[in-house]
């Protein structure tokens, strides 16, 4: 936008009588709702709103739009005519407030100035007009304090210290005990503070006060706290804020005046009733600032029954009109009620589900709209146990909140100890610098996982989420020493093995000692241990059940699970999974089978290799039989071996030390030496881009054939037992159709051999993961050899961005988020513009070649609420995610299918 002009001769100022609640983009939430209440005939003080467009022009150019001053003057003239008084006139001044108001509620994040128009002259007129000198001087000192801090940048503590000194001199504890003479002195003190700190006098011209306050509100959009809040809430940074100029009404005129906030329902529980706070003889900021103790809103009935009854009626009107929980700000001026703000109120996750079902039962909304009132993120909050917020805690660190939940246990520093202690009945937290596949047993045994490295898609994070384990990753302030079996926390305190620690996977916080936890009834419901409608059923469970049932009826996307064993598969099925979208076979090669893999890697001859594969075959078959039994009648997509082979070998440093020690002691070490040679041979600078996935199947003869045979024989065995196995074989890391054709030819041959040997007809679909940019770009060719695509969005994100997902989140993602390069990590929510474009293009190209091509996603994005909506829009058939995220994906798939552009309950 050039200079300071808006396009198309934009209108920058709207009277409250001109707007409505649907103009939030232009008037901000506060302005739109003030206009809506005005339209409803509710008692709203007259005023006008400066649009977000004016703010955006100002922020881009550094100057207000050319037309803004004249528009403000015209609306101010109209306001003065309506009120019968001039802004800041000496005898009977009109005073106004200048308040921010963005599209999305950002409480306390931007600026407000009250009592604009007061000066050394008009304060006398206000005192005379109100018949209350104390009130006038109290209002004046408030203006100087707020204006000095907000507009002139004076440190707020200086005013607070002066106020405290005035109370101390008077020997009182609350500001209402200060008399007019005390407040006059305080005004003089405040003006001196302004002069000294701001280098100028407090402005006496009321229009200058208003103009400077308007600019300050514009500039507060880019204040540090506002930007931080927007990042946290994922609110776009380019919306700008509106500015509301409203004629003042006064709650600080004595005991028959006051101010308060009210909720049409309890925002914590969702229960109906009278909820809110009231403060006599106060202005609005006093309530939220907490400078004096409020009384419960219900007590207003005894203080001022007329105003109370009117407020209750207005609250009912607003809830019926907005058809939702409303958050209300009001002021009573000498017995007259004024409405200063309303908005759809923020609420806890539990309240969101309860209120949605309550409103359906009351006939205010239908089930489609109710589904838009709850989110997968809220459901996730309800599913995980939490620490008791009332407990006394000692926080010693903070990392990345990788997998939600609350876990308490004794710190252990290796998987062996974790398993050993767990089998003895101990609860443990596995503490590592980072985890690898060899830590799986320990991760399973542990209550939670804590690492000093890694991010939300590191091994620890991904596996923990799959198991529903609490996990905190990348806690860099914690120094983990696995050799000495200890962890040093900031301040020098040492956590020895066996010391109890607590980790919060929802916040990333780490505590010393045991913090008590509160269990989740919602998980008990999904596990089948609590039944809606039963006498002991929690009403929250009933609400969740109803929302889930409706989402399941409406959704088009099917939801599968990422599960590698029968136990996880059964849990996933209880949680509503409609199959397995990803079985990672590498997890089946750990533990005691590791030696068999070592034999395969060390094999020098075809005979040795065949012997190692023959040893693995029956074990793999047993795994698949159990999996097919658990998921009988539902599809099971099995990914053939994917990670680099060196992950199954000992650490190169530890092995080198072992060999060196054996040589120095002249002890036998032939096997270790062969292992070391193999480790060196397989070592890669970047193994995630090296010998893995389909490349393994092509260079290690018989590896993929063994896995395909195990799958086929397991399917045949289940069919013989009258089961209904529905196996799908997935080839990982394909970059060209030729790779897939070669593997497919071998797989088809093996399946035919098993059919002949067992006399069983097998229909095993063969497809591939799309996790490389080249695969996405040549998807039309690859579809010629694939019956399904499953988008591996973890690796696709990594290869599209050129990010090493195990490193970047801890190293520079924080800076990228702070600078606004990311709104959210692309490993957490799919990058629609980059990675998402490849997904859409590959889906379209694949279906042009093969119209019946089945499309799914099995990366971590499959359980992310926002990403689920993208996959719905992209036309995929299913998403797959960890078992504990299945309900979230089900709910979001239902919301995606019923999405209404008019619904926005951020």
UniProtKB/TrEMBL annotation:
| EC numbers | 2.7.9.1
Reactions catalysed according to its record? pyruvate + phosphate + ATP = phosphoenolpyruvate + AMP + diphosphate + H(+)
Pfam families referenced in this protein's UniProt entry, alphabetically: PEP-utilizers, PEP-utilizers_C, PPDK_N
Signal sequence extent: none
- The residue stretches assigned to a coiled coil in this entry are none
Q: What keywords appear on the UniProt entry?
A: ATP-binding, Kinase, Magnesium, Metal-binding, Nucleotide-binding, Pyruvate, Transferase
Q: Which cofactor does it need?
A: Mg(2+)
The GO terms describing molecular function are: ATP binding; kinase activity; metal ion binding; pyruvate, phosphate dikinase activity
- The catalytic site is made up of 459, 858
Q: Which residues form the Pyruvate phosphate dikinase AMP/ATP-binding domain?
A: 64-293, 300-350
Q: Which SUPFAM superfamilies match?
A: Glutathione synthetase ATP-binding domain-like (SSF56059), Phosphoenolpyruvate/pyruvate domain (SSF51621), Phosphohistidine domain (SSF52009)
Q: Which positions in this protein are listed as binding Mg(2+)?
A: 771, 795
Residues in PEP-utilising enzyme C-terminal domain copies: 542-894
Q: What class of enzyme is it?
A: transferase
Q: Where does substrate bind?
A: 584, 639, 771, 792-795
Q: List residues of the PEP-utilising enzyme mobile domain.
A: 426-508
Say yes or no: keyword Transferase present.
Answer: yes
**PROSITE patterns per the UniProt record, alphabetical:** PEP_ENZYMES_PHOS_SITE (PS00370)
Similarity section? Belongs to the PEP-utilizing enzyme family.
Known PANTHER family for this protein? PHOSPHOENOLPYRUVATE DIKINASE-RELATED, PYRUVATE, PHOSPHATE DIKINASE 1, CHLOROPLASTIC
**Entry protein name:** Pyruvate, phosphate dikinase
Which species is this UniProt entry from? Answer: Streptomyces misionensis
